[in-house]
């Protein structure tokens, strides 16, 4: 067995030991085919107010600009599909499944730190960095290149064994490891379920998302008022959106995660629409103290909830000032 093959075995066994569902390996090199796609996407202003997506264009495409001497990109999948979905009844306020429990950034970042420590113990000094939705890294493209799946029409990575309800994370390291082969086939075929189901028409092409129209963007990234054109189209999503995943046939293979930190806060699981709409800042801080929902802040979440109320002609409740 060559050193590169041995390193690949160590990477995959370590990933399994830390609870990752899949581990794929790709050679660290410039993503040449992605450059024109990214440039065109940005030229259409599909990033909306997410100006950071236009920053560090070269670093986003070239991992060697993020880690000196980088040789390998390790792509990792971590399941978050819940055993029970919230809410329990049609018409209830909804938030994306990934936000039910603890903030995934904290949970997975700790695992990646341990991953690098284990590698250094077993192999020796390694220069590398870990990433979980925290730097200019094209996680989905690297995962595809590493053979973990293909990019669906909703632009998400799809895996034949578990669908798409998972987090992606990466290690960029200066360790040589035998790469995996990219998946040669797109298994979406002629299916357009995600395109047909999107209420805001955010999927504007095969794998192309107008981020400025996506409900996840409108409820999380957008700092201004939600445009009136989306009245009646939010489908009760107060934070994030799972519509294009819920309708995807491949997600029939989703299985419940085994990560205790991702279990829904019991208080959140018992929320009624009334409790959502009458939420105080004190309740927000208590329920979402360790959640990704805190990213939108109390004022942002109230803005979203108020917008949902006015969708059906309910009395408008002004959003409170941001006290952060």
Automatic annotation (TrEMBL):
Its EC number is 1.17.99.6. TRNA binds at residue 223. Residues 179-208 form the 4Fe-4S ferredoxin-type domain. The active site is at 133 (proton donor). Pathway: tRNA modification; tRNA-queuosine biosynthesis. InterPro entries: 4Fe4S_Fe-S-bd, 4Fe4S_Fe_S_CS, QueG, QueG_DUF1730. Cob(II)alamin binds at residues 60, 133, 154, 157, 168, 216, 241-242. It catalyses: epoxyqueuosine(34) in tRNA + AH2 = queuosine(34) in tRNA + A + H2O. Signal peptide: none annotated. [4Fe-4S] cluster 2 binds at residues 198, 214, 241, 244. It is found in: Cytoplasm. It comes from the Bacteria. Its cofactor is [4Fe-4S] cluster; cob(II)alamin. Binds 2 [4Fe-4S] clusters per monomer. Pfam families: Fer4_16 (PF13484), QueG_DUF1730 (PF08331). Keywords: 4Fe-4S, Cobalamin, Cobalt, Cytoplasm, Iron, Iron-sulfur, Metal-binding, Oxidoreductase, Queuosine biosynthesis, tRNA processing. [4Fe-4S] cluster 1 binds at residues 188, 191, 194, 248. Catalyzes the conversion of epoxyqueuosine (oQ) to queuosine (Q), which is a hypermodified base found in the wobble positions of tRNA(Asp), tRNA(Asn), tRNA(His) and tRNA(Tyr). Belongs to the QueG family. Monomer. This is Epoxyqueuosine reductase. It comes from Algoriphagus jejuensis. The gene is queG.
């Amino acid at each position: 067995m060559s050193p590169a093959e041995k390193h690949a075995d160590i990477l995959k066994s370590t990933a399994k030991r830390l609870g990752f569902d899949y581990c794929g390996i790709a050679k660290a090199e410039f993503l040449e085919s992605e450059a024109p796609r990214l440039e065109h996407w940005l030229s259409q202003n599909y990033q909306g107010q997410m100006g950071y997506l236009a920053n560090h264009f070269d670093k986003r495409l070239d991992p060697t600009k993020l880690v000196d001497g980088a040789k390998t990109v390790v792509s990792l999948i971590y399941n978050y599909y819940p055993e029970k979905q919230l809410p329990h009844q049609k018409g209830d306020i909804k938030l994306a499944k990934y936000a039910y429990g603890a903030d995934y950034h904290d949970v997975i970042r700790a695992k990646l730190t341990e991953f690098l420590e284990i590698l250094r113990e077993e192999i020796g000094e390694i220069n590398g960095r870990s990433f979980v939705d925290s730097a200019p890294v094209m996680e989905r493209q690297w995962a595809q290149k590493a053979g973990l799946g293909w990019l669906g029409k909703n632009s998400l990575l799809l895996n034949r064994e578990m669908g798409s309800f998972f987090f992606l994370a990466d290690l960029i390291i200066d360790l040589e490891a035998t790469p995996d082969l990219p998946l040669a086939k797109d298994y979406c075929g002629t299916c357009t379920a995600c395109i047909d189901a999107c209420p805001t028409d955010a999927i504007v092409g095969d794998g192309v998302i107008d981020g400025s129209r996506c409900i996840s963007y409108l409820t999380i990234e957008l700092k201004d008022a939600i445009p009136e054109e989306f009245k009646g189209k939010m489908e009760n999503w107060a934070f994030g959106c799972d519509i294009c995943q819920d309708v995807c046939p491949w997600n029939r293979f989703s299985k419940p995660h085994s990560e205790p930190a991702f279990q829904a806060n019991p208080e959140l699981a018992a929320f009624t629409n009334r409790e959502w709409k009458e939420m105080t800042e004190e309740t927000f801080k208590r329920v979402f103290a360790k959640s990704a929902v805190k990213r939108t802040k109390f004022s942002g979440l109230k803005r979203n909830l108020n917008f949902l109320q006015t969708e059906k002609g309910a009395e408008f409740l002004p959003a409170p000032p941001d006290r952060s």
